[in-house]
Amino acid sequence: METVEINLEEQFQARIDADISIEPKDWMPDAYRKTLVRQISQHAHSELVGMLPEGNWITRAPSLKRKSILLSKVQDEAGHGLYLYSAAETLGTSRDQMLADLHSGKAKYSSIFNYPTLSWADMGTVGWLVDGAAILNQVPLCRTSYGPYARAMVRVCKEESFHQRQGFEIMQTLCEGAPVQKEMAQEALNRWWWPTLMMFGPADADSPNTAQSMNWRIKRFTNDELRQKFVDMMVPQAEFLGLTVPDPELQWNETKKGYDFGGVNWEEFWNVVKGNGMCNKDRLGARVKAHEEGAWVREAASAHAKKRARKMATQAA
Amino acid sequence: MQVAPSDTSALNAYPPELRQLLFQYVLQLADTSLILGHRLSEWCGHGPVLEQDLAMANIGLDLLGETRSLYQYAAELEGQGRTEDDLAFLRIATQYRNPLLVEQPNGDFADTITRQFLFDNFHYHCLVQLRASADERLAAIAEKAVKEAAYHLKWSSEWIIRLGDGTEESRQRLDKALASLWRYSGELTTPTATEKALQATGLIPDYAALLPKMEAHLAHVFEEATLPVPQGVFMMTGGKEGRHTEHLGYILAELQYMQRTYPGLTW
Amino acid sequence: MTQSEWPLWEVFIRSKQGLDHKHVGSLHAADATMAIQNARDVYTRRQEGISIWVVESTHVHASNPDDAEAFFDPANDKVYRHPTFYDVPDSIKHM
């Protein structure tokens, strides 16, 4: 028996190495399945919770155009959550179970959403910076080894491309507007820059699972690689906007053809992960409330569907 | 029957009084879809299940799209150089012309569905007729919106049926929602002086003619939902003439926050 | 009472007239009517479709990956089923 198991593992890894997708009914190691469920559901939860900080500004959007854009963007996030939950469900875990894990605090979501959105410029910054960081994470996942996850990500990335642009457009409008608007933009960048850098996760040295995930091609770049890429991509955009990146150590390094930048405050990062961010309690509280208050609606629809099915069965008989 | 102008410059072909009436009416339609769209957007991120969160946002987006077309047209009719955003964000509560129904709070899902159904049943049937308006702009806006409203009505009708003929709890909640919202339904088909004047010109539908279709659809849905149709309820009116419930003020406080705090800026 | 969650449905969309319905993903719904409407709201927000099929996921029967070799490999050596297997002189047209 032992040898058969080893063979399956080897065959599995050989398929991964040959970039052949793994599909739901294929054999896979338990650890691969578990890691995927954790990663995909965490990603889905992030979309779901991520609706809240921006949803916070839909009713206060400053123009009808912005209101429509913001509502459609936040709605897209619901859609992305849904695609991802569906992908995770193909691995045999129900959405109900995943939501229960989110609500109990067992499952995590991206810590960035535990920061408050305090001004309209935050809608620009979240779109431009946070979605920009998310896209860097997500684009490689379109080629991730698990088929349903990769296909969900293709759809997500396609839709996500307008999100970053609308954020940048908000920033550009603010930066080209009145001084008070430019200040608003700078103040938002000051608050969001460092938390956004934290989105890529702990430094490689402190990320023990990275090697296995890269080996399984669930992850395709390390946290630090992506962080560097992000800084190199964003600094020129901030310069274009005339905004100052709040990092005195930021400097172009000609040798590595990239920016050197200051150290991330990992104490803050772990604090927020542990639940001590400004909004952890509010965000999770809002999700639990929506789910609990929706219970009777879901039950009513199920009950009605049963009644209707019975009625049709009687009519057919 | 009034001969309607086909382009903006030809709006001058309307006698000033008629043009003013039409402005008031288009503004009323715009305010209505704005306020209801705003209410629906409050659900975003808080729906009872992810799929319905998306559904409500879709309806909200349809209404906001209709809102923009209507304000743009209203601004042209007014001819004072105001923009869609000026009209949406820079008027005081008593100048808003939406019926009372659409400003009522979201409450629970039963309240939202009831408000939506009562509105959709009017909105859809009104748009069907408005497509034939001699005013080409209004007819064109209705032509686009009627497809959206047909879907909204389907969606809200089915939810009325599910909640009415679902569980004991859903039925109780729906009964409660109807008890509080039914009294706002009559205003939709009670014409104001502005509407009467426009109905007389044939530019907008006669609500009396819509009623049989609305009542038939409602009777069908309520029968499926095993709900009795409420009778003899006193109908509240006033919204379409600027006399609102207290809820509108809070909506406007949020809606207008940015425009009022930072006057005259572009976003 | 813990109500079990709404069943899962597989969604198939025809993107335009003349093309097949293609599997696009799944969603939850209490019944078929709701499943179609949810599919419309979830999967056609950007004009992705003109027709929708939904099938309750429990009704989909799939081939077993363990049978893949027995099922699909035997077709590998039937190259003569493909037109490119045959040499046709260049001067022959319309074939």
Automatic annotation (TrEMBL), chain A:
The keyword Transcription regulation does not apply. GO terms for biological process: phenylacetate catabolic process. The keyword GTP-binding does not apply. Keywords: Oxidoreductase. It is an enzyme of class 1 (oxidoreductase). Its EC number is 1.14.13.149. GO terms for molecular function: phenylacetyl-CoA 1,2-epoxidase activity. GO terms for cellular component: cytosol. It comes from the Bacteria. This is 1,2-phenylacetyl-CoA epoxidase subunit A.
TrEMBL record, chain B:
This is Phenylacetate-CoA oxygenase subunit PaaI. Coiled coil: none annotated. One of its GO terms (cellular component) is cytosol. The lineage of its organism: Bacteria, Pseudomonadati, Bacteroidota, Cytophagia, Cytophagales. GO terms for biological process: phenylacetate catabolic process. InterPro entries: Aromatic_CoA_ox/epox (IPR052703), Ferritin-like (IPR012347), Ferritin-like_SF (IPR009078), PaaA_PaaC (IPR007814), PaaC (IPR011882).
UniProtKB/TrEMBL annotation, chain C:
It is an enzyme of class 1 (oxidoreductase). GO terms for molecular function: phenylacetyl-CoA 1,2-epoxidase activity. Keywords: Oxidoreductase. InterPro entries: PaaB, PaaB_sf. It holds the Pfam family PaaB. Gene3D superfamilies: Phenylacetic acid degradation B. Its EC number is 1.14.13.149. It comes from the Bacteria. This is 1,2-phenylacetyl-CoA epoxidase subunit B.
